[in-house]
Write a structure and sequence with these properties.
Number of domains: 2
Helix content: 10-25%
Strand content: 25-35%
Length: 211
């Protein structure tokens, strides 16, 4: 019985029939990888040589890359993206809401950062601020706090506030990074600048287009 109409022949099986068995299996393997890649894209990420690219369109569009070795966890309430390597490092992307302000957004960010620091100290009672100041990630201006979370065990962190790069923006993202010496942070300033956290932190961009 003919199951395939003549206009749809030759089938893939018929095309591969003259090839040795090893070659046929190699072709099927490549096709399988293509299917997996398509599924990754459909689920909101895409594989690259540098890991998986995460793309979010709502409520604020942004994208970033995840280095191989980091795991994407289910975001908790108030989180949009949660990346982690157990007992080593983590990065959480969440919403930033700014109060009404006049003039340049750079004037309000240090005030907001002070309130953010107070909240962090409630969460981490041993927290010590190490440095703070203006930040820039892929041309977007923001404000960053680098801090020591605890001395024993050694844990460091960074909080970066990034408003959307449009005049008068009152929303954006909070990037909270935590890292241990095992994750590549020997001091607070290393968080986001070394180890695997550097990839998602430095690749963050507003919008859905990759560089």
């Amino acid at each position: 019985m003919t199951l395939v109409a003549p206009e749809h022949r030759p089938t893939l099986r018929e095309e591969l029939a003259p090839l040795p068995a090893s070659a046929r299996w190699a072709v099927f393997g490549v096709l399988g990888l293509l299917v997996v890649g398509a599924l990754v894209v459909a689920l909101g990420g895409s594989s690259t040589a540098d890991g998986v690219r995460i793309v979010r369109e709502r409520p604020i569009a942004f994208n970033l890359r995840v280095a191989p070795g980091m795991k994407q966890l289910e975001p908790a309430a108030g989180e949009w993206v949660h990346l982690e390597r157990k007992n080593q490092d983590s990065m959480v992307v969440g919403p930033l809401q700014l109060p009404a302000y006049k003039g340049d957004v750079g004037g309000i960010l240090p005030i907001v950062a002070t309130h953010e620091l107070d909240a962090l100290k409630q969460r981490f009672p041993e927290l010590e601020l190490v440095e703070e100041g203006k930040a820039r990630i892929n041309t977007v201006a923001g404000y960053t706090l680098a801090f020591r979370v605890s001395r024993k065990p050694r844990l460091y962190g960074r909080l970066t506030l990034l408003p959307q790069p449009v005049p008068g923006a009152r929303d954006g993202v909070r990037l909270l990074l935590l890292s241990t010496p095992a994750g590549g942070a020997g001091k607070a300033s290393d968080v986001g600048t070394s180890g695997l956290l550097k990839t998602p932190y430095r690749s963050f961009r507003f919008g859905t287009e990759a560089p």
